[in-house]
Amino acid sequence: MADQATAQEFDILVLGGGSGGYATALRAVQLGFTVGLVEKGKLGGTCLHNGCIPTKALLHSAELADHARDSAKYGVNVTLDGIDINAVNAYKDGIVAGKFKGLQGLIKSKGITVIEGEGKLQGTDTVVVNGTAYKGKNIVLATGSYSRSLPGLEIGGRVITSDEALTMDYIPKSAIVLGGGVIGVEFASVWKSFGVDVTIVEGLPSLVPNEDTAIVKNLERAFKKRGIKFSTGIFFQGVEQNDSGVKVTLVDGQTFDAELLLVAVGRGPVTANLGYEEAGVTIDRGFVITNERLHTGVGNIYAVGDIVPGVQLAHRGYQQGIFVAEEIAGLKPVIVEDVNIPKVTYCEPEIATVGYTEKAAKEKFGDDQIQIQEYNLAGNGKSSILGTGGLVKLVRQKDGPVVGVHMIGSRMGEQIGEAQLIVNWEAYPEDVAQLVHAHPTQNEALGEAHLALAGKALHG
Question: Which residues face 393 on adjacent strands?
């Protein structure tokens, strides 16, 4: 019996095997801890199975469709015969399956004990799974998020979330997307490329309302050019559906008709009925409240990822998982504030941002303490070759470091790496201006923008 008792006890017990949970587990075993990882679905969680990875696969298919449509202007005569949604899904599912297999192999090879089933917190050091109790000297809550709806808006039939949208075996003729944030604009972008008549409904005054105003204007202009319709600034009232479609009504009485309504109003934390409150963990609107070091204030219980208030991004959960493992090990890891976490929206054109928007920077540092620089991609050779417009916008403290980088344009998401180093290492424009940016790349646009901000613009 003693052997069995020790088998059920771990240095770190992680509840949830998504980005945050499995990163905690991997870093913890590196640091010499024994780890139990509880997962009721599939390792990899939302990001791998019904979030980041499958949606980006769809967006790549969408990009190829657009290239085929526009190929004649590049001297290549291709005709688009249509979208085979079953083949698109097979490609997408193949990518997910490959990554899933790799992750399973990695977790197994590191000696992490995977406990299959739904776990529930009991007290401050125990998680019960399928009637079996497992103990953890430290417990990490990483139960992730789900596709939220609005009060009174039932999901079902022709009213779907991103979960259903990712498994559809047909392409609708028309669709309304409720929500103009990241998920909404990405699906609108895919569907438009696939030939769907798309309308986005966003109650706030603009699409992607969290982005810098220069990015918002550019995206809205690009979407209009692509024929993606949108209604902003008027809230959703309700939806009716029948056998042929949906009718969406806004609070001012306007109506929109389509085959489907995609509800993309964000993601809610998965924390209900898991024993969190009973254990004394503070819950606010479903989110787990922690201190800045991700400790819940109860026993040795930490929380990471989408259940912790802030930006819901896989790489944030991943970074927080590593952070918590190192925190438990006493390594005193450095906190990365949400504002300095890179963010990419993969619609066409892509948005890539890190740091403060102009508005947020002025609020933090003062109106007269901020300098702005915009560099138009029209001056960038590689962007012209790709046929994209857009811009790079820099926000700096007056005579100080760059505190925000905001970019939009085809494939500009790939430029976020250097941008996040600039912001997180508090680089001055002069520091970046002296570095050489390879020609012809879109990356040069970052270099040129910093040259301009340093007062030595070469082009324009």
Answer: 374, 406
